[in-house]
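Kindly review these tokens for lecture notes.

. . .
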Amino acid sequence: MTKLGKKIRHSQLFEMLRQKNASDQVNRRLQVSRRSAGEGEDTLMLRTMAERSLVVPSNGRV
């Protein structure tokens, strides 16, 4: 594998790890949101934040 190929593979792996971390954070936020269901405005805010964080900067879905 060439040096450039290694760099590309490394950047792809890094991006996959970043996306996994983002989805784990969303899962945690959704769990908190579900636990606090029925608390009104705070629940809606947490769910909205979790949904927004599913969109990565490149406008792709996780």
About this structure: The helical segments are 3-35, 41-53. The two ends are 29 Å apart (CA to CA).
